[in-house]
Every structure is written in structure tokens, then in C-alpha cells.
């Protein structure tokens, strides 16, 4: 359900009060990018946390790099494929005059790389760095060398602008073809044991081990998306929109919302049921497509013949309460946006649960949070 919060942002700043007439976008974050502090009971952005790396090592050779904060890849003979990031096998062959060559082969795909004969003793990383002589690498090194030369750097910028403004595809390809880009084995990414704490109460928000971008082992995890409802806005007719709330918790939640004077809300207080194991049941009707057989069947079960009825603009505004729809763990509330120039809608959300969510029984008696939710107005 990622589309539910792509256009929904949370204003997250404990030191600066929100100005609803001129919202500072610096403090707007997607729900998936925030943490949730169970003690402060509020979302926490990247500016309100304290990250710490406890240990850093190579999972292949077990070399410890904790004392080297700038090191992010293994500098020993541990390499990964530049195409698929799989581990690489290394084969050494002897040649005349004490020469040696090294052949890299990916253990997953067909990638291979041969260093050729090397006569001077060097580390494998040093050998590969010397072999990086293709056109693209040379151009990158030239740019770094002339970083202090304004005229040359400006010329390079002009070339980039020219490339970005080309209208003909064949002209762009002719410039790109000037650069010969090679693929070299790269050092293995280090495994990190990290933790993140709340900067206010120092509570542990995240404690995990990261070995690859897609392989994480969590011991403690307080992500905001697991505790705060996802919200979204869809257009119904003319200046009437549907405001959607989806409860991610395993307990019932009560909520109260308020907004600026240009927004007419038909319902200020409501309840959300506990999250369901059925994926389709947890999707608001506005997001179910008739092009999908499963979604269409669910829509017919929910609305029946009303699904195909046409709705007049005046009918909606006069009977807003009729268009409130409640699901297992979600609710859709009709709102009227009277100002057509508004691009975002700020809504203050207050949440409360009578029981603590799963995993927080020893921390809190129940959820009691309040925050500003800023939603983009659909065109």
C-alpha cells in the first residue's frame, strides 16, 4: 500500500511550530522515513535521532574495521560483482619472469574479469585501481583535478547542460558513446551493527545489523509506519475529496482530526478497527480498481449496485455523511476544500488507544499521540 502515503507527509520538528500558511518543507517527511518513540509518543525525523555504529567488519574475512570510521568496503581480497553484487571467486595463475595474473568470476552471473599479467607485487585493490584507464574513469579524474580551475570546470558544466538539452536522441547517443565505461570488481560492503536513539529521551528506536542493502537483522525496531495510520487524499467530485485513514496496529484506535478554516470536515472524531490479515480487506474502496478481478469482486461486495450509480455534485455537498465509508481497519471521510488554490492540506491528528499495541505492553499503557499531517491536493 505504498501509494497511500506517497503524497502524505508528516511535519516532524519538536523545536519549530508549524506555520500552516507557509509550511517549511524541510520538516516534511514521508511516514516510511520516520521513527516512532514510544516514550515521547511522537514521530521522530532524522534530525531528532542519535545514530551510532557499534561495530563494523567484513562478513567474508571477518576483519574488524570498527576503528576506521571512513571505511565502508573491505580492503582485503574480498570482492563483489559490479553487476549483481554477488561474491566473486579469485583464481591466481603464474607466468614467466615472476609474473602473476588474477581472474575474477562471479558465483552467480556470467561476469568475468582478467587483470592480465602483473610483475610488481601489489594488493588486488591497487592492481585494479591501476587498470582503471577507460575513458569514463579518465574524464572523472580530470574533473577532480581541475576542481579549483573555474574556467575549465565551467566548460564541463556547459557540456553537461548541452547534453541535457539535446532534443535528438541520436545526438545524445553520439556524445555518450565518447565515454567507454568498464565494469570492475568492487570491494565487499562491510557489515555494520548500528543503533538509533531518540535525541530527547535517549530511548533505543532501532538496533540492527546491516550486511547488505536488502539484508537486515533487527533486534529493536520502532518505525513510524508500524504505529501511525497511513493517510491519503483522493478526489471525489469538483471540490469534494475523500480523506483515508488506515490503522496499522493490532488494537482498536480512536482518532480526532482538525484543520484550517478553508477545509470542511464532515466527521471530526472516529474509530479505526485493528489491522487485518486480509490484504484486500485493508484497502479503502477508492484504491480498488475495476481492472483487477479480485479488486472488482471486493468492490461489488462492498457497494453492490451503488458502484455503478452516477453521483451529482450537489448531492455530495448536501449529504456528506452518506459518503463516509468504514472498513475493517480503515475509514474514508469526505471533505470539502473551498479554496481551489490550495496545493496542500494540513490536518492535525490526535490518536488514542485503550490498550498498548503489541510489543509495547511493558512500555506504555496505551498510545496517545498528536501530530500534523500534510497531504497534497490531487489535481
Automatic annotation (TrEMBL):
Keywords: Acetylation, Coiled coil, Cytoplasm, Cytoskeleton, Isopeptide bond, Phosphoprotein, Ubl conjugation. Pfam families: Dynactin_p62. It comes from the Eukaryota. It is found in: Cytoplasm, Cytoskeleton, Microtubule organizing center, Centrosome; Cytoplasm, Cytoskeleton, Stress fiber; Cytoplasm, Myofibril. Coiled coil: none annotated. GO terms for cellular component: dynactin complex; stress fiber. InterPro entries: DCTN4. Subunit of dynactin, a multiprotein complex part of a tripartite complex with dynein and a adapter, such as BICDL1, BICD2 or HOOK3. The dynactin complex is built around ACTR1A/ACTB filament and consists of an actin-related filament composed of a shoulder domain, a pointed end and a barbed end. Its length is defined by its flexible shoulder domain. The soulder is composed of 2 DCTN1 subunits, 4 DCTN2 and 2 DCTN3. The 4 DCNT2 (via N-terminus) bind the ACTR1A filament and act as molecular rulers to determine the length. The pointed end is important for binding dynein-dynactin cargo adapters. PANTHER family: DYNACTIN P62 SUBUNIT, DYNACTIN SUBUNIT 4. Belongs to the dynactin subunit 4 family. This is Dynactin subunit 4. It comes from Candida verbasci. The lineage of its organism: Eukaryota, Fungi, Dikarya, Ascomycota, Saccharomycotina.
